[in-house]
């Protein structure tokens, strides 16, 4: 008897003839498909009618099914409580590890993100400071350069002749190491 | 989302294990334990015969459940749950077999656990030739002969046989598990049955016990 006669759908790419001639000997492959319950009802009916009248076919079928039945002798390993327990423990540990590992990873990722953001901000601030320092004119520098003039501004205003003042400047009067200082 | 809520519910109603897996996805530990209880023996039965070592088979079963658990959030009920979990089992077992082959390891049980010796064909030849008396061939030895016959199958044939015989899977379902076409599965099972008949046929022809004469 087929193992799974309730599966009538034939395989779509089955190369075996769907409608063999009545005199066609059935191949072992067809018999195996019959035993496996993989033939449609029509094919099953045809094979069973041939089996009823063909002792040689029955012998071949018995040979194939007998070997299959012998597989029932295979020992089925029994599962102990230990396997169930260790499986559940192992999965619980893995779940815990996944959970903990996930938090660590998230924390590390957040820390890395914060540090990256802080680094970018610091660099931008430094770059801006340098640019502003270069671009903005320094008023104090000019004051320092003209310090000697500023200190004597009231006296120098008394002099109307600019050429005279230039002469004083050339003589080094307004330099920082002038003899007056 | 590819699979709608109503589709999921429909599949869950048709396959209670799908519903359990959905609950596992909602971090229901009891549902996961129930799945372990339902499937561990089935997985162990198939994988132990695939690998030939109970210890390795237990490791693989645990690895399968670990993968099931880790896939809980992404699980989409696209097939029967048994098909899905056996697909995982097949992949893990296939990797283990490749790994064992790379290390040139011999199967632990083939040489050590049975009374027939390391080489199945050699052992069966000994029985057939009468060097092992027929009276010693009891049920346990018959079991051993069948196991050794299964061990002679190429591993894909063996997997197809085990899924068909012990899980009652059809060609289409085995094809899904083993990522092959149903036609390829059909050929695989046909060749496997032929190989088994070649090895076990003499015993069938002489009754349940081999003929010592």
Describe the secondary-structure layout.
The complex is a heterodimer of chains A (181) and B (213).
Chain A (H helix, E strand, L loop, with lengths): L27 H8 L5 H13 L1 H16 L10 H55 L3 H7 L1 H5 L1 H5 L4 H9 L11
Helix pairs in contact in A: 1-3
Chain B lengths: L4 H10 L1 H10 L3 H23 L2 H17 L10 H22 L5 H5 L7 H10 L9 H13 L3 H13 L3 H8 L3 H24 L8
Explained architecture:
The complex is a heterodimer of chains A (181) and B (213). Chain A is mainly α. In chain A, 65% of the residues lie in helices and 0% in strands. Chain A contains eight helices and no strands. The radius of gyration of chain A is 52 Å and the shape is rod-shaped. The N and C termini of chain A lie far apart (127 Å). Chain B is mostly helical. Chain B has two domains: 5-102, Rna Polymerase Sigma Factor, Chain: A (Orthogonal Bundle); 115-206, Winged helix-like DNA-binding domain superfamily/Winged helix DNA-binding domain (Arc Repressor Mutant, subunit A, Orthogonal Bundle). Chain B contains eleven helices and no strands. Chain B has helices at 5-14, 16-25, 29-51, 54-70, 81-102, 108-112, 120-129, 139-151, 155-167, 171-178, 182-205. The termini of chain B are far apart. The A-B interface holds A 3-4, 7, 11-15, 28-29, 32-33, 36-38, 63-64, 66-68, 70-71, 73-79, 83-84, 86-88, 90-92, 94-95, 98 and B 29, 32-33, 36-37, 40-41, 44-45, 48-49, 54, 57-58, 61-62, 65-66, 69-70, 139, 142-143, 146-147, 150, 161, 164-166, 168, 170-172, 181-183, 186-187, 189-190, 193-194, 196-197, 200-201, 203-204.
